[in-house]
Amino acid sequence: QVQLVESGGGLVQAGGSLRLSCGASGRTFSTYVMGWFRQAPGKEREFVADISWSGGNIHYSDSVKGRFTISRDNAKNTVYLQMNSLKPEDTAVYYCAADRTGNSWSSWGQGTQVTVSS
Fold it and tell me: Checking DSSP bridges between strand 112-117 and strand 10-13, what pairing results, if any?
């Protein structure tokens, strides 16, 4: 398994931006599909975005498409989530995940809180 540590969460006003980072340990980071998920209070965890090992294949949920951008730097073992035009409904704990097999992910970070005020 790979160890994941998220950072970059915080409090921002609606319309603002945040950039989340997820640092990974391990020498095989560049081979993993990486993803971002979020969980709002009282709701199930939901998919936000994922990115293939090369960065050439990216998917977004409909709720964030056009506002969020996922990217990765394999030299730094880091995946990013640039979040623009934030809305109060984006408020959630955001989790980084690694190594997708089918619909399962082998490693998860501890999460970082994002709060968007109206």
Answer: parallel
Tens digit of each residue's pLDDT (9 = 90 or more) over 9-37: 999 999 999 999 999 997 788 889 999 99
Burial (CB count within 10 angstroms: exposed 0-12, middle 13-18, buried 19+), residue 117 = exposed
Tell me the two tokens of residue 24. Answer: 């990974």
* Residue 38 near residue 46, CB atoms below 8 Å: yes
> Rounded to an integer, what distance in angstroms lies between the CA atom of residue 68 and that of residue 20?
11
Is-contact 92 110, C-beta < 8 A? no
Per-residue pLDDT tens over the stretch 33-87: 999 999 999 999 999 999 999 999 999 999 999 999 999 999 999 999 999 999 9
Distance CA 6, CA 80 (A): 9
